[in-house]
Write a structure and sequence with these properties.
It is built from eleven helices and no strands. It is mostly helical. The chain has one domain. The relative contact order is 0.09.
Length: about 240
């Protein structure tokens, strides 16, 4: 909830572009308080929703945000049918897999927690990216959605672009034209990895380079403990 309730990017009237200069918790990326989680598109959805709930009680706002999470999960579950179909499964197999995807308990935290919207949005972008990758005239749009997934949740860097590159390579290896390495095949295999490298490099530079400790788990842990301690002190002060 800290990323929403106490995030100035969600409540303030500062420029929208400021979202791309702050981390998921609203701290400037160059700040020592920032642990470098960069999810501007997720924060953007929170801010957009808060703009349309002015004057509404906090409990009602929370309910609406939960409803958006549920809707996103329902959308992901529905789109997963087309995803499984694009991977070669039959209609019945795809429907069963989609139902299993919708009901699997592993998704409970992402749907029930408001900040879990990051996972839901990243999943949405990833699923759409893979679906479009298998459509001849629309596959270039897959790059845009895969890039957007990375700006919803960091873990998307290990899913969308690597997967579509792997699928393209496996499709070529299993095809009858295995001996032919066409230019389009090469581009569709290499371009996703090149884009991923570019995005990760830009992200690293945005965070100040390697010296900024982008991969520093210790920095993340210390900041998390500090935030929890501050929250407990605030609660104790209110109770007193």
């Amino acid at each position: 909830m800290y990323a929403i309730v106490q995030n100035p990017d969600v409540y303030s009237s500062q420029p929208w572009l400021a979202l791309f200069e702050h981390d998921f918790w609203g701290f400037p990326l160059e700040s020592e308080k920032s642990h470098k989680s960069y999810r501007p598109l997720t924060t953007l959805t929170f801010r957009w929703q808060m703009m349309h709930t002015n004057g509404t009680e906090l409990s009602a706002v929370s309910t609406r945000m939960h409803q958006v999470n549920v809707a996103l999960h329902a959308l992901n579950s529905g789109l997963s049918v087309f995803l499984f179909r694009s991977l070669g499964l039959s209609v019945s197999e795809s429907s069963f897999a989609s139902l299993l995807f919708a009901c699997h308990p592993v998704h409970v935290e992402a749907v029930a927690s408001l900040v879990g919207r990051a996972e839901l949005l990243a999943a949405l972008m990833t699923i759409c990216s893979i679906i479009l990758w298998n459509i001849p005239l629309l596959w270039p749009l897959s790059f845009i959605l895969a890039a957007c997934a990375l700006f919803c949740k960091e873990t998307a860097a290990l899913v969308a672009l690597p997967m579509i590159s792997s699928f393209q390579l496996m499709d070529w290896m299993c095809s009858k034209a295995y001996s032919e390495w066409k230019l389009l095949t090469a581009l569709k295999t290499v371009l996703p990895l090149m884009l991923l490298s570019l995005l990760l490099t830009l992200r690293l530079l945005l965070h100040g380079g390697l010296q900024a400790g982008w991969f520093s788990l210790q920095q993340f842990s210390l900041q998390t403990v500090s935030n929890v301690g501050s929250s407990r002190k605030t609660q104790m002060g209110q109770q007193g």
